[in-house]
Amino acid sequence: MNAAAKFQQPRPDEPRARFLIELARALGTYGTSANRIEEVIAYCADAFGYNAQTFTTPTSVFVSLEDDEGELHTYLARVHPGETDMTKMIALDRVFNNVLDGIISTREAITEIKRVVSMPPRYPVWMIVICFGIIGVCAGNFLGGAFKEMVASGIVGLMIGLLVQFAGRKREFSRLMEFLSGLGAAVVAGLLAIPFGGYMTTVPVIAGVIILLPGLTLTIAMVELAMKHVVSGTARLAGAIMVLLVIGFGIVLGQAIVDHTVGSTPIVVPERLAWYVDLATIIVASTCMAILFQAHLRHAWVMIVAGLLAFYSARYGSMYFGPEVGVLGAAMVVGVASNLYARIFDKPALMMMLPGLIILVPGSLGLRSLQMFMAHAPDDAMKANTTIDAVQSSFTVLVVGVALVVGLLLANVVMPPRKVL
Prior knowledge:
Among the domains are: 10-117, no CATH class; 124-274, no CATH class.
């Protein structure tokens, strides 16, 4: 690359500058962490001969490019956070790799990025709703429920799926989506206790809303904080806590409505199901995650492998070494496997990492601790005990989150990633 090309002033309409901005905005839209976005932009800018500084938050991205006279030209792009879409992530990964390899120009890449962003969802709404219900069934087993709890979790999951896919598309309802989901889950789970003859109502409540729990957001926030991206990490962490608070408030209100209308329902402790039920639910849940993440079904095997690695490494690691070490080891196993997958198949490591982290993230623990804080106790002594349990549960959430972060960082040491994404 000659000197003139290397030090070309990065005008706002200059294709390479525009490409960097559009790429950063698209990656932020689909949930890419701040550290990965900044690494991608720095890698591309270096190939273009620019000195680039990137600053990202969950809702914005700033890109500063230095010209040959040392002046910084800063560009701001508004990011509208969307759902995780692995098909679009793979397409974006292919676009910027093709630009760096000289296969397409930056002008063509800008057009391609806009085409990728405007692509319609791969799967129809009815399939997404069914996956909400199926994942609810599987989560009911993961949370220690038996067949009653699993069936109830599936019903609650279907209700949440319908609520998200239809009511959530309206602006007024979308702002209340987390509250309405928590409220609806608690009411439906409580009412189902009447025909079911009593069961663990907390299992279907949490299993039904588990897709909406911000456990993954919480983990990404802690990764960003560990990588010194304090603004993005703090903002993402605050957003995750707010979502938990709103869902928890809806659940507590729903449980109060059920208690005052139909009265308290008997709680029956479920029996543990056979080992093959765990295996089947992991496979089914991982396949449904491929659909929810808008991944092609030919990539479902990747998510199944990630789910199996995360579940069994966490289970047996916790059994022999304690929950903290177990989660750390599971995160490291998933991270190493994800980086290895990216090296072999030239696909984003996030394809395997995200479904593995979904199994490990402490979202349900956070919701349980929040329920404990908000629960009403008949006397002061019981209230004190409940508060202590809630504090211990909250501390466990933080420990599990830190273990996840340390495990992922260790994975990058054991198996350094070849790809930026």
